[in-house]
Amino acid sequence: MLAQQLGARLFALGAYVGEVVRRHTGAAWSGDDDDPAAEVNIALDLPDGRRIWPVQRVMKRFSNGGEDGLVAYGAALGLDTGSQPATRRRPWFRRR
Fold first, then answer.
1. Sheet holding 51-52, edge to edge
2. In the prediction, which pLDDT does 3 show?
3. 41-86 pLDDT, tens per residue?
4. CA neighbor of 20 nearest in space, from 90, 77, 63
5. For residue 10, what are the contacts with CB-CB under 8 A and spacing of at least 6?
6. d(Cα 48, Cα 78) in Å, to the nearest integer?
7. 36 touches 42 (CB < 8 A)
8. Which of 2, 22, 74, 92 has the fewest CB atoms in 10 Å of its CB?
9. Cα gap 27→92, rounded to integer Å
10. pLDDT over 90 for what percent of the chain?
11. Phi first, then psi: what are they for 30, rounded to 5°?
């Protein structure tokens, strides 16, 4: 799915991540309309004074893999990311 329109899709994912953070923290979007890279540099100003860049984080996740995971990002921001799903190995075949 990311083979075509990669930039637009990463922006959409970053905007989604940012909107989830905004709704849960009360943050406000912040950007500069004169910035030629405004889509990448759009930020969220959190109520406690921190500023984050969710689109850039999604781009880092795409480039670097799991070391820049989004769940850890949310958890570091104080969001309830839920419990880790239980992993249960299922046999390839069942004996009867």
1. 28-30, 43-45, 51-52
2. 72
3. 999 999 999 999 999 999 999 999 988 999 989 999 989 888 766 6
4. 77
5. 2, 55, 58, 59, 62
6. 12
7. no
8. 92
9. 47
10. 62
11. -145, 130
